[in-house]
Amino acid sequence: MMALSFLTLNANPFSSLICKCKASFDTSPHALDSACIRRAAHLADKSAGFTSPHPNFGCVIVTPTGVVAGEGYLYAQGSTSAEVQAVAAAAERCRGSTAYLNMEPGDCHGDNAAVSALLEGGVKRVVIGMRHPLQHLRGNAIRALRTHGLHVDLLGEDLTSEHIEDAQKACLLVNAPLICRAASRVPFSVLKYAMTLDGKIAATTGHASWISSKQSRNLVFELRGRSDAVIVGGNTVRRDNPRLTARHGGGHMPMRIVMTQTLDLPEEANLWDMSEVSTIVVTQRGARRSFQKLLASKGVEVVEFDILNSREVMEYFHDRGYLSILWECGGTLAASAISSGVIHKVFAFVAPKIIGGKNAPSPVGDLGMVEMSQALNLIDVSYEQVGPDMLISGFLQPLPEMAPVIPSPVETFVVDPTVSPFESSIIFFYKTWDPYGAFSNFSPHPIQMPDENGDYATWLSVEHYYQAHKFLGVDDPSAQDCVERIKSAKSPEEAARIGRSVQRKHPNLIRSDWDNIKIDVMYKALKCKFSMYPHLNSMLLSTAGSVLVEASPHDLFWGGGREGEGLNYLGRLLMKLRSEFLGESSSSSETPSLTV
Ligand SMILES: NC(=O)C1=CN([C@@H]2O[C@H](COP(=O)(O)OP(=O)(O)OC[C@H]3O[C@@H](n4cnc5c(N)ncnc54)[C@H](OP(=O)(O)O)[C@@H]3O)[C@@H](O)[C@H]2O)C=CC1
Ligand SMILES: Nc1c(N[C@@H]2O[C@H](COP(=O)(O)O)[C@@H](O)[C@H]2O)[nH]c(=O)[nH]c1=O
């Protein structure tokens, strides 16, 4: 199958790129640098979907004679960093080498693993394709490497050329969702549709299976596998009864979102089958409460909105940490999403078929335009043949510039003097890339906890420990198997996915006292984490006087909720722990009433 990505990376194997430089006697360091950075971006792209919501990192180590000595890419958050893998693979050949990184490493875990590996491996020069897009992480790794005497170059900062621009583009594209997140309040959204040569996405009857070829549809599975979620409108659910799963074998499975105003949806639908992946239905506040209950009984999450429109919905999923959304809706919802300015990229599969029909639906409904001069022009358009179809893709809006990233508190103060950078009465944390992201259960800090026999076992994160304890001690082989699967999950996200989906599907496997003990389980794990890592302990103590709130908009038990309606138990436990570390006997005075 051809490799498909949000970017269109050169499919040529790396070796040919290097050879090209050499064969044409273009031995300039810049030609080699750009080829190696492209390779790093290509490697980084291999795990797209799995790393989310974290960046994709690739690293290539090249000896002074131009030989690739080691390579690596980040498989998932919490797994071994690309730099550590590449340095290990290069072994002795690392000394004096150049390391190529598609993006500056961001050390949100406080262990500086990537930088340390490059230093310890004896790398002499580091070439970076792109600075870290998140302001609070940007520049830290570059500074650390330079402080230790390494020569660090940022591709394209001293000179530019076609090769360099290509390589820079590859770096931007491989982390487009993260860049988008850093610069705006919505995830990176791709609108994909399949249409006939006469511009129809279904027959007049609404029948649409299939317009595009099997090859194209296989490619769509890949696109789904690269996305955090796939979204459709209510009509598509009623008409197509889609599954929206990524069926390309072993890939990442996106969440499924249905956007419906009426909530007039079938009682039985493939999307309510949660055995493979979950579905979230977003709807108008107050819509069909009895149907909401029915969906809840099937494990489908329903989120109500006062104003249900594409932008509000995207902002909500942005706040939930989603980086990339694939829109597989019909023309009505597509027009609303385009009008709201939330669509970044379009993938149009054009099949050499004609269906006709004056009322047959087209991919984009009314945008209110009356003259061709108003048409939206795609940027950076690509054309690829896929089986008998033509895939046309391009951007509806340019990727955000790297400069205007989220301003630092001090910069915010300059822009808006009413915001004090020193006002810290509430500290929000959620994703591990946040300034206080290490407070999250998902921060990849392994903990060592005693089991029931007093033997110590290592858990890759607090989330691993917490999820596994839902099933611990249950006298059922499936529960024991679940504990093992969670324990060996490659990332905290994967651990949470397993734990939550088994809990939803097989509530009988959950230990009967779980609701009574879960806070205690979490507290023990947090205490261990903040005792084992001195820098985390200092970070926690440095927040003294501030209320800590886990800014999860959807977890109303551990998080603070969208409007402060959540119980914020994670924040409360951290404050309790902070009091304990500070030597205060009681935490009750600190427990906040959450009206944030
Ligand atoms: N060839 C292709 O690639 C595809 C073809 N199709 C075909 O398209 C047809 C369906 O098209 P269409 O009705 O446009 O698709 P959608 O169902 O995807 O979108 C329309 C629906 O979205 C819901 N919606 C919620 N909020 C909004 C909003 N703010 N603005 C607009 N809609 C909103 C409404 O659901 P509700 O009515 O429940 O309130 C509305 O009816 C079907 O025949 C299907 O087979 C669909 C997808 C892809
Ligand atoms: N008809 C059509 C598409 N339709 C989209 O795919 C959905 C069905 O997905 P699934 O149930 O997972 O196979 C459907 O609801 C709609 O969103 N996609 C395409 O690539 N080509 C096609 O010809």
UniProtKB/TrEMBL annotation:
GO MF term (any one): NADP binding
Enzyme's top EC category: oxidoreductase
Pathway linked to the protein: Cofactor biosynthesis; riboflavin biosynthesis; 5-amino-6-(D-ribitylamino)uracil from GTP: step 3/4
InterPro entries per record: CMP_dCMP_dom (IPR002125), Cytidine_deaminase-like (IPR016193), DHFR-like_dom_sf (IPR024072), Eubact_RibD (IPR004794), NADAR (IPR012816), RibD_C (IPR011549), RibDG_C (IPR002734), Riboflavin_Biosynth_HTPR (IPR050765)
Family matches, as CDD domains: NADAR
Catalysed conversion reaction: 5-amino-6-(5-phospho-D-ribosylamino)uracil + H2O = 5,6-diaminouracil + D-ribose 5-phosphate; 2,5-diamino-6-hydroxy-4-(5-phosphoribosylamino)-pyrimidine + H2O = 2,5,6-triamino-4-hydroxypyrimidine + D-ribose 5-phosphate
GO biological process: carbohydrate derivative metabolic process; riboflavin biosynthetic process
EC annotation from Swiss-Prot or TrEMBL: 1.1.1.193
Domain CMP/dCMP-type deaminase: from-to ranges: 31-153
Top-rank taxon: Eukaryota
Entry keyword set: Glycosidase, Hydrolase, Multifunctional enzyme, NADP, Oxidoreductase
Pfam family, one: dCMP_cyt_deam_1
Keyword Secreted annotated: no
Name of this protein: 5-amino-6-(5-phosphoribosylamino)uracil reductase
Record keyword Oxidoreductase present: yes
